[in-house]
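Quick one: structure tokens for this chain, please?
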Amino acid sequence: MQISFVVPIFNEEGNVAKLHEEILKVARGLKQTFEIIFVDDGSRDRTPQILKTLKPLRVLTLRQNAGQTAALDAGFKAARGELIVSLDGDLQNDPANVPAMLEHLSKNQLDVVCGWRQKRQDSAEKKFISGGAKFLRELLIKDHVHDAGCTLRVYRKACFEGMSLRGELHRFIPALLVWRGFRIGELAVNHRPRTAGQSKYTLTRTIKGLMDMLTLWFFHKFASRPLHMLGAMGIMSALVGMAIGSWMFVERVFFADSISNRIWPLVAVFLVLFGVQIFVSGLIMDLIIRTYNPKFYEIKDERENK
């Protein structure tokens, strides 16, 4: 198998048939062996019934709605192709861009080509939020990708060896791959307005994405030794607390000043206890890091329509 098309689907009854038709047309034109994988992320409309009628197609059905990242992770793990093409299920990504992206990947010896929606067909609110997220992303994780929110990408399968995605981390796959030494490129792609269904992007999802960005920054900096950060914070807090406590001790013993009506002794105790707690937390995280790897989705069914 040379190419796997992976598409996360959630309540897209008005789009899946047309999307499958467009992908199939492009895939056949590539003159390479291919498979199309649609991951049904617990759809509650007529999407599952429509998927049964589409051929050729591999359908992965998640037991419950686990989110776009989980659906992509399931699709990537199931993919058999040497190259993996990911697209959104809302028809806003244009499959016609895939041949140029594959050529760009091969010509420049890249591991990933990310789509760049230079002319986005989204609301002003969505563009504003994306702009703010891009600013923070460049500040914290520096992936140098113009459009991390674009799902239209081409990967070499090796990119996902040993990688598991969760939360809203699909936006930060380029950053994860850059840190691992993979070569990333970009190509301008067409972006179409949504014509059916409803957008799945909400304020809650945006906030989760920001939290994942901070988590990613932390793990990039301190994944192997969280004690380096938490331990340093704990020691600094404890030292400041002990310094304040020593100052209060000197004032009380040598200058006979009353400290019972002052807040500084309480601050000193708080900082010392806080420092000890943070330091111990760093030790515990050092022990358990990378050993706790829960699975956040479950595949209910897998079938292949031929």
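The radius of gyration is 25 Å.
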